[in-house]
Amino acid sequence: MANKAIHTKVVSANHETELRRDFQKLFRDCPIPDNEILENLSLFLNRQTMSRIIFMNEMYQRIINVHGVAMEFGTRWGRNLAMFESFRGMYEPFNFNRKIVCFDTFSGFPSVDAKDGKADIIKEQAFSTTENYDEYLTKVLDYHEKESPISHIKKYEIVKGDATKTVHQYFINNPETIVAIAYFDFDIYAPTKECLVALKNHVTKGTVIGFDELNLHDYPGETLAFKEVFELDKYAIRRSPLVPNASYIVIE
Asked: HSE on the CB side for 203, CA within 13 Å?
C-alpha cells in the first residue's frame, strides 16, 4: 500500500520518538514465522496500547446487559472497532443484535470551526487515512466476524462521509436503533455536536458515551460540544487511572 503524507499530532519527546522508531524496525524485522506472528502480537504492545485496550474493555463491560448497538464517531484506522468486535465475540458471542457502526470521512477533518482552537493540528484533512482505507478495514472486520459464532450475519457497518450529514440519514434509515455505547473521537466541534444531538433520541438508561479528548487544551471543540448538548453539571465524567485523556459518562 502506497503511503501519503498524513498530518497528525505527535506528543512524545524526541528520545521517545527515536526509541519507538527503533522498536518499529524491530517489528518489521521480526523473525517469527508468518503463521505465528498474530498470536504473538503482545510482544509489540506497549503499556500505552495495553492501557487503552483495558479502558475500552472497561467501557464495553458496562453495556453487556444494555440493549442496543455500539457506535464509534471518528474511527480512522479502526482499532476500537476491532476491539468492539472482539469484545462482542468474547462476552456475548450470540448477540447478533449488537451491531457495530462507525462514522468517518476517512479523509480527515472536512472543515474546522473557530471553537476548535488554534493548535497546529487543527486544519482540514488532518488525521486522514491512506486512500480507500475503508475497503481494507472492511476486510479486517470481516475476518473478526468469521472468528466468532453466527458469522453468516453481518453485524457491522461502516458509514463513510461527513457525519454531520450521514448520522441523520443513518437514523432515518434505521429508526429502530437504540445505542448502548457510543465513542467519540472526532476531535473537533461541529461533527461532535451534530452527532451528540442526533444521538440523544436513541439512548437509554445505562448507555455509555465515551470521549477521547475531553478537557484537552489542543482539542477544545469536543468539550464545548459536549457542554452544549449534555451539560457538564448533569453527569459524572468517569475516567480510568490507566489513560490520561479518555473518559465516559453513563446515562442514568
From this structure: 21
33: Cβ–Cβ under 8 A, 6 or more apart, which residues?
A: none
Set of cell numbers at residue 184 = 467519540
Separation of alpha carbons 83 and 90, rounded Å: 10
The separation between CA 66 and the C-alpha centre of its own chain, rounded to angstroms, equals 19
Torsion 107-110-112-116 (CA) sign: negative
pLDDT digits (tens, 9 = 90+) for 156-168: 999 999 999 999 9
User: How many C-alpha atoms does 7 have within 13 Å on its Cβ side?
Assistant: 11
Place of cell 472497561: 58
What distance in Å separates the CA atoms of residue 51 and residue 99, rounded to the nearest whole number? 25
C-alpha cell at 76: 480512522
pTM of the predicted structure, to 2 decimals: 0.91
Identify whether the C-beta of residue 214 lies closer than 8 Å to the C-beta of residue 237: yes
Of 114, 80, 89, the residue nearest 188 (C-alpha): 114
